[in-house]
Amino acid sequence: MTAAGVPLLGTRAPELTLPDTHGTPVQLSQLRGTPVAVVFFPFAFSGICTGELCELRDNVAAFDDAGVRLLAVSCDPMFTLRAWSEQEGYTFDLLSDFWPHGAAARAFGVFDETTGHALRGSFLLDADGVVRWSVVNPRGQARPLAAYREALATLGV
After folding, report:
1. What would the pLDDT profile of 92-104 be if each residue is shown by its tens digit?
2. What pLDDT does residue 11 have?
3. Where is each Thioredoxin domain found (predicted)?
4. Which end of the chain is more exposed for a tag (fewer CB within 10 A), N or C?
5. In whole angstroms, what is the distance from residue 14 CA to residue 129 CA?
6. Distance CA 91, CA 15 (A)
7. Which residues are catalytic, by number?
């Protein structure tokens, strides 16, 4: 881990178990055998977050073609994420890091203690749960789809 707590490339990702939009727990370690993209975002229904996740929704085939499971995580309550997912038609999992508040974001080093939300951090894990790519963008800066495509190509699928 770096001083900020962001997992270093080549290290195993922190464990997380979070409820999806229906309250079903999703445990990262149980997804081993499948590459996973973990995408932290600040707030449901906000402009940049909606733009980013809609772009992922519209290009989810890139993740599917690479055999990567896409998980989007925020500190919003499960019911907020469900309403947003239904409104926007997201077909990937949205996970609630609401309680204990921000525990997963803290474990990945992307929790903003001052404002109580996740930063824009993305992590690509290989089938063994090892971090192969990551990016943490500053406030107000969306992550470009091209960066995800380049990261997916590194998996060699």
Report:
1. 999 999 999 999 9
2. 94
3. 7-157
4. C
5. 9
6. 23
7. 49
Return the residue matching tokens 């979070």: 18
Question: Residue 116 — pLDDT band, cuts 50, 70, 90?
Answer: very high
C-alpha separations of 103 from 97, 113, 131 in Å = 7, 11, 19
Q: In the predicted model, what is the mean pLDDT of the chain?
A: 94
Domains annotated on the chain, with CATH: 39-153 (3.40.30.10)
pTM above 0.90, yes or no: yes
Spatial separation of the C-alpha atoms in residues 143 and 42, rounded to whole Å = 13
Distances (CA, A) of 1 to 4, 11, 42, 49: 8, 8, 22, 26
Q: Using alpha carbons only, what angle is made at residue 56 by residues 60 and 113, rounded to the nearest 5 degrees?
A: 135
Listing DSSP states for 14-46 in one string gives PP-EEE-TTS-EEEGGGGTTS-EEEEE-S-TT-
- The closest of 31, 18, 45 to 100, measured between CA atoms, is 18
Pairing relationship of beta strands 111-112 and 117-118 according to DSSP bridges: antiparallel
